[in-house]
Design brief:
Radius of gyration: 51 Å
Largest sheet: 7 strands, antiparallel
Distance between the termini: 116 Å
Structural class: alpha+beta
Strand content: 25-35%
Shape: rod-shaped
């Protein structure tokens, strides 16, 4: 038998109840004249054996029972009865202890009597049952109430009486909603009305436990209380439903403590999810409304939003309001910001709880009901309780959070200050982390902006547009870069690169490599030769690391790079790549082609060659150079990204700037970007035949004079007579040097673009050098004179020889 079935067998009638105890009828001389079946079962005598015999046949003496039990028996008997604990003899001779009550039938001595007897031991259990019942009715901390089938109150215990705080007669017969106005079931899965829960118990017979009910009891109508309730159906002896019993335990303090703990846990999850200060300020408002406060304002010390370190400002620093949120009764319990123009300065009056909190560096609470000089603005808004808490982190005050209550009638109590301080501390630490991140990010972005091209050079070879989008990791700073480099002969170098990693180190490595690429490009190296030189420099940098450095920690190792050179005279594009996605081209008809540039290893691997490819591009073609972060991410392969890029670039209706914007909008992931993305678009142009002219000269002294004549005639045709003297001198010197020191024919070319370009090519591979000639030297001064008369000059090498070039500004 389990505990439940045992409880169902408990008999609360008592051992001396006439319906169950042995009953003996005695005459005035204590002779047995009546005998019940229970008496036969207790004593063992049949009626014919005991009737007419004296009581002493059965009762042989008194027991040594302690006094409390005797007093209990006396309380159980009436005024004409006496109860005793006696020794009795069974028919078989064994003795037994009995509890007996003897009552006079006429209410006076000498009249017939009736004796009720029962075994003494069950009396102890019955006594415990009676004590339990009295305890439930008078001493239990659980409120007990009985409702009839119409859900009207019929009985309550002492605890329930204390919560009603009225005479029971004033509430007898009333329903639950009449006892507790505005109450509501707050447990999930139950009807909101408590009467519906009770009716369900009556209808189904299924008890319910742990139902949380919130209401204001008559004894404390100003505050909400929470009870944990249980309901079970009551039935009479015949199985008829007579009502429902309610067990209700006031758990208000425990429930509030659980709510505060849940609020703390929720704050740990939801506050500080980003490194944005305003978002963090909004998060604390979302966490506490409406569970802790009805509205919240968050003010930060001036300068914190810009990442500055808060400075001491005395007792009243300058504050900026960043969040002002008021609870809104949305179905999901959310709230919204009060409309404002964004962060704006805010001032508090002297003596306000906010300034007091900042000055004392402690939480300050003010209840309007306890304070006469209430702020008028707060009074109009219905605010009756204010709690101001400073936002402090690392010993520095970041700002202030103010909790306000208007709908919630309870003021902020002392035990809620610890929770407010916990929330403020968590928020302050998150804001301080965001502030430091903002400062470091601003520094890193400044560094990166200084390392990336500030302005692209003016040139006629291509029309360019570019975009750079850093990732959302590593301070929003990465190692992708792009560049446009003006080269000799109106050519232009286009480069994109990708440094492994993010952050300041990656940006610094990017700047170092970009500078190196520009320096190597000015040497007029071919793309494959430039990447080979760059690879050697990266390897050398890795070897030159400080002793003890972990191998491979240099961000320069594993760099991807693509370098292309476009010549607007020949319309030929030459490109090579090192571990980088290939470039793409779109012809004037909109046909998209992914250039078949031979793949090369990433920079820093070493030991493998780089190869170039050449392609002739029609006038108006579009070249697209991009890093892997633009077309590939963790949720998308590179083929899908290239297909999307094709769709953007094949539409030739838009400008380059518009295509750049479309590419970023359509190719970037919906969530945070995990890699940097760089895009460089270049629309090619061709220099017309009226801008370029060249002549092949024989390698003999007479060719110098012919070169001067050709150049002077061409300058006259272009209307550049002002440049005749200088250009004649330059061409004369360069052709003379080519004839004197080189072999084979000499080729002279003039290009009129934004400046005047003179080029002299020969079959030699020896580059002339500037030198200072002595006073008695017969030669060696020509190239020095040339260098002083032009803007720039240099040498570039080809597969068949070299070209000496100069550049002069147009008048």
């Amino acid at each position: 038998m389990n505990a439940w079935s045992e409880a169902e067998t408990i008999d609360f009638r008592g051992p001396l109840d006439v319906t169950s105890a042995a009953t003996v009828l005695l005459d005035s001389d204590s002779v047995v004249i009546g005998w019940s079946e229970a008496a036969e079962e207790l004593f063992g005598y049949e009626p014919r054996e005991i009737l007419g015999r004296p009581l002493e046949t059965l009762i042989v003496g008194r027991t040594s029972q302690e006094q409390p039990l005797i007093e209990l028996l006396d309380r159980s008997a009436g005024p004409a009865c006496r109860s005793e604990a006696r020794l009795a003899r069974h028919r078989d001779g064994h003795r037994m202890e009995l509890a007996t009550t003897v009552c006079s039938l006429a209410g006076q001595n000498g009249s017939p009597q009736i004796m009720v007897a029962a075994a003494l031991e069950p009396l102890r259990s019955w006594e415990a049952h009676q004590a339990m019942l009295r305890g439930l009715a008078t001493q239990s901390p659980i409120g007990l109430g009985i409702y009839d089938t119409d859900l009207r109150l019929t009985w309550i215990n002492a605890k329930y009486q204390s919560e009603i705080d009225r005479k029971f007669s004033e509430y007898a017969g009333k329903r639950v909603n009449e006892l507790y106005g505005g109450g509501e079931v707050i447990s999930e899965g139950y009807p909101a009305a408590l009467e519906d829960v009770m009716q369900s118990v009556i209808d189904t017979g299924k008890p319910v436990f742990g139902v949380l009910y919130e209401a204001r009891p008559p004894a404390d109508p100003e505050h909400d209380h929470v009870w944990s309730c249980a309901y079970y159906r009551l039935m009479d002896g015949d199985g008829h439903v007579i009502g429902v019993c309610e067990d209700a335990l006031d758990i208000t303090d425990r429930y509030r403590a659980q709510q505060r703990l849940a609020l703390t846990v929720r704050a740990g999850v939801r506050i500080g999810t980003t490194l944005d200060m305003i978002t963090t300020a909004r998060e604390i408002a979302e966490v506490v409304i409406p569970a802790f406060a009805d509205s919240v304002t968050v003010d930060l010390v001036e300068g914190v939003l810009e990442g500055e370190e808060p400075r001491p400002h005395g007792a009243s620093p300058s504050l900026v309001r960043v969040v002002e949120r008021v609870g809104t009764p949305y179905a999901d319990g959310s709230s919204e910001d009060t409309p404002s123009a964004g962060p704006y300065p805010v001032e508090y009056e002297t003596g306000s709880p906010q300034l007091t909190s900042l000055a004392s560096r402690k939480a300050v609470t003010v209840d309007r009901q306890r304070r006469a000089d209430t702020d008028e603005e707060e009074t109009e808004a219905g605010v009756h309780s204010t709690l101001a808490v400073p936002l402090r982190a690392r010993g520095t005050t970041m700002g202030l959070v103010t909790f306000l209550r208007s709908d919630n009638p309870a003021p902020f109590e002392y035990d809620e200050l610890a929770l407010a301080n916990e929330l403020a501390t968590r928020t302050a630490l998150s804001i301080d982390n965001a502030r430091r991140y903002t400062r470091e990010r601003a520094s890193a972005l400044t560094l990166q902006r200084n390392l990336l091209p500030r302005g692209l050079p003016e040139q006629s070879a291509v029309e360019v547009a570019h975009r750079y989008l850093p990732s959302d990791v590593g301070l929003g700073v990465g190692g992708d870069w792009f560049d446009v480099i003006a080269l000799s002969g109106t050519r232009v170098g286009l480069v994109v690169g990708d440094v492994v990693g993010h952050g300041v180190n990656a940006a610094a490595t990017m700047g170092r490599l970009r500078t190196t690429v520009r320096a190597l490009a000015r040497l007029d190296l071919t793309p494959d030769e430039l990447l080979s030189r760059l690879d050697d420099l990266v390897l050398q940098g890795a070897e030159d690391q400080e002793p003890g450095a972990v191998p491979g920690t240099d961000e320069g190792l594993g760099v991807a790079c693509l370098y292309a050179v476009y010549d607007p005279v020949s319309r030929v594009c030459t490109a090579a790549r090192a571990g980088h996605p290939p470039a793409a081209s779109v012809d004037p008809e909109g046909n998209f082609t992914l250039l078949d540039i031979p793949p090369g290893p990433p920079l820093g691997v070493g030991g493998l060659p780089f190869e170039s490819m050449e392609i002739e591009l029609p006038e108006g073609s579009l070249l697209a150079l991009f890093t892997g972060g633009l077309v590939q991410d963790r949720d998308r392969d590179i083929d899908t990204g290239v297909a999307k890029l094709k769709g953007v670039l094949s539409d030739r209706e838009g400008t380059l700037e518009e295509m750049c914007d479309r590419a970023l909008n359509e190719l970037q992931p919906d969530g945070p970007a995990t890699d940097d993305a760089a895009l460089l678009l270049a629309r090619t142009h061709e220099l017309g035949a009226d801008q370029v002219i060249g002549w092949e000269l024989t390698a003999e002294p007479s060719a110098v004079g012919r070169a001067r004549t050709l150049v002077l005639d061409q300058l006259a045709e272009w209307g550049l007579d002002e440049m005749a003297f200088t250009t004649e001198l330059v061409v004369s010197e360069l052709v003379t040097n080519a004839i004197r020191h080189a072999v084979g024919p000499v080729y002279l070319r003039l290009i009129r673009d934004r400046s005047l370009h003179c080029e002299v090519s020969d079959k030699g591979h020896t580059s002339p050098n500037l030198r200072h000639s002595a006073t008695d030297d017969e030669g060696g001064r020509g190239l020095f004179i040339v260098a002083q008369m032009v803007q720039r000059w240099g040498t570039r090498y080809t597969t068949s020889g070299k070209t000496i070039w100069t550049e002069q500004a147009l008048p």
